[in-house]
Amino acid sequence: MKALFQHAATSHDVTVRVSVNFLPEQSQPELGKWFWVYHIRIENGSDETLQLKTRHWRITDGLGQVSHVDGDGVVGDQPVLHPGAAHDYVSGCPLTTPHGSMEGFYGFEREDGEPMEVRIPFFPLAAPATAN
Predict the structure, then answer these.
(1) Distance from first CA to last CA of the chain, Å, rounded?
(2) Cβ-Cβ contacts under 8 Å for 74 (sequence gap 6 or more)
(3) 3-class SS at 10?
(4) What InterPro entries does the record tag this protein with (predicted)?
């Protein structure tokens, strides 16, 4: 069953919602590999058309080690969101620990060319305890 959106943040009338799920079939705990998939919905509640240009992630593993990931768009796309529109995508995150977290921001461009940052909410990555 698909999880509902568990985390949300709103900046400049743009809401970012996140649902995250641990994927045991993609993980190999005995080799120190855990994998999560996350579904993001970006909702443009503003009255102007916006284009998502960049992303910045801050990924922290269970040992407190931080990785920063920057790039253009999301999963190869730089979507344009008209007022009232939403954009959904799915991506994944591997870690070498069974726990961690992600957070960050998207860089949008307004119609007048001005940049705007939209916060991605903090969300935990947590593998369930195994019975073995």
Answers:
(1) 24
(2) 40, 52, 55, 87, 89, 91, 106
(3) strand
(4) ApaG-like (IPR050718), ApaG_domain (IPR007474), ApaG_sf (IPR036767), Uncharacterised_ApaG (IPR023065)
Token digits of residue 83: 């007022």
DSSP codes of every residue in 41-102: EEEE-SSS-EEEEEEEEEEEETT--EEEEEEESBTTB--EE-TT-EEEEEEEEEESSSEEEE
> 104 Cβ partners below 8 Å, 6+ apart?
55, 56, 57, 58, 69, 119, 120
The CATH H-level (homologous superfamily) assignment of domain 7-122 is ApaG domain (2.60.40.1470)
Tokens coding 28: 């190999």
Integer-rounded Cα Rg, in Å, for the chain is 16
pTM confidence score: 0.93
pLDDT, one tens digit per residue, over 98-129 is 999 999 999 999 999 999 999 999 999 999 87
